[in-house]
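Quick one: examine this chain and its backbone structure tokens and tell me how the chain folds. Here goes:
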Amino acid sequence: MPAKRVDPPVDGAYVPFHNYDGYDFGGMPSAPDRLNQGPFGIDQDEGWHTLMVTTPARGPVPNFGMGLMGYPWEENGAPPTGEPMETSVEKLARLPFVDTLYIRCDWRDVQRRKGRLDLNPVFAVSLALAKELSLGVGIRIQMSSPNIHPELSIPKFIADKMRFASLGDSFIEGEKRKKWREPDYTDKNFQKAFRELNELLVAEFDDNVLVEWVDLMQYGLWGEGHTGSTAATGIAPYADLLETFATMTRLQLELWKKTPLAVNTQPDISRAGNDYVHDIAIRGGAWLRTDSIVSIEESQQIEMHANRPPYLASIVEDGGLRGYQMDKLLESADGGVTNREFAALHALDVGANYWSLWQMADNLAAFDERFPRCFSTAREKIGYRVRPSWIIRRKRYGRNELIVILKNDGIAGVPGRLKVWVEDKKRKVKVGGSLDAGHPYAGKLRHASFLLPDGVDYEGLKIRAEVETKGVVRPIRWACEQSVNKDGSLDIAPNTFTRFELRKDQ
């Protein structure tokens, strides 16, 4: 049963649960290069024509901020294949439906001594494969996990200097029950080491464009912001826990200046101030992550992900039957749909950007062959899928202007700001800037104006897009059926639908 709510809310820190749709989280500031996004009427219109149209892409279009995640490492270690770690991770990374490598490890896997990182070799292997195969990387570092008892998630050189709270027995299924010790997160020695760890991680990863996000380091089991059915107040009083976790959240938001953080949306079942942490994190631009989607604890998390601010990504993990063992999947099939299909396709219902594949490359390949619609459907819909649906040329101020109407065929908004450029191949002509954060929203359109320099028409120009997140700009590929260039851009030229109407005097 959930922990009993016995502590009064702390003054100034009580955030009652609310609907997320339309809730004021402060938004993102306007970009200095904001494009004119309309409305565009007939005033000063000296002649117009629909120059070009596009149609939605078929199949996956991998881009930053979206995709299916393979796990090179999770709380139990490397994929349990009996192969060398390098072999099993490479097999996973080379699966055709893997878009991102997600390293989910313990603190002890990244640091063994004061003042420096001691990264597990899986980091070097995963980052090298990500660079070679154009994959993204996500990282979670856990401060607590019941899977590795009697050894702690925290390095020994820190554990020897701090207090732990005994919260009862471990509840891991199939294991002999062992005493479960949770760190006292309020301990000054812990907090000093926590700051150092983040500073070291920032120095290592914050400038790495392969790293798409890092999970907010949260308290409790697997870093998910809970202590199971045991109240977290067994560690420290509620007020102390809330103040501590709010401070830790602000610290991470302050230190990670370039890489998005992701806050787990676990409800406050363990009484430690999660609602307040969520509010701080989202206002600070953190993405959202959940560890279950079908057997989710409450509809609260579904509301949070489905109606989150459109410029924030949603990361969905689901641990049920994570091994993709075919016999178990078939036994649990319902109406021809397996449990893993139920979970993956429900990630789409909340407008997710990412879905977890877990570790077992051979099992994943066998599952994909037996149930091909699952991963293919997820990759064709997940995240954002943006294209210039209409490109309209009109005359204005005696110059040529392009009005581009951008369409998002995906289920999520753009995770950041979409930057759009109209340019020639040598970039002697370059006109463009940023849309408002998150636009175009899922299933929606967004207009933008590109006033070309005097004497320049559309011939020889192309339209190109990037995503800017926390000041870091990454190129993206247009999700249109029409052929795009190697850099993901689209040449601007009348296509079959519009060419017969175009006249030079227009």
